[in-house]
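Notebook entry, structure prediction.
Reason for the run: the old model in the group folder had no record of what sequence produced it. Starting over properly, with the input documented here first.
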Amino acid sequence: MHADNSGGMTPTELIVAQIWALELAVGEVRPDSEFFQLGGDSVLALTMLFQVGQKFGLELQPATLFEDSTLRGFCRTLDRVTGGDPAGSDAYAVSGSI
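New structure, fully documented this time:
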């Protein structure tokens, strides 16, 4: 299971792709991969949102995924909140909900 970086993934996309690959038990996650088409459902979405939230120091609402369930779109939302720096999200102690 891995993230395919042939599409030039951002650091956020690489981190989230690894989480999706593990949660969904898929071999490859690309920027245009869609969470629900990869086998995700509402229960897996909640689990994934919790894990991503823990990693980035955020409280993620399900609507975050439903607005754009592609890897790239979901990560774009995360980047708006974290400033595009996944490593820095802990330093910012972001506790807001998105």
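Summary: Confidence is low (pLDDT under 50) at residues 89-98.
The old model has been moved to the deprecated folder.
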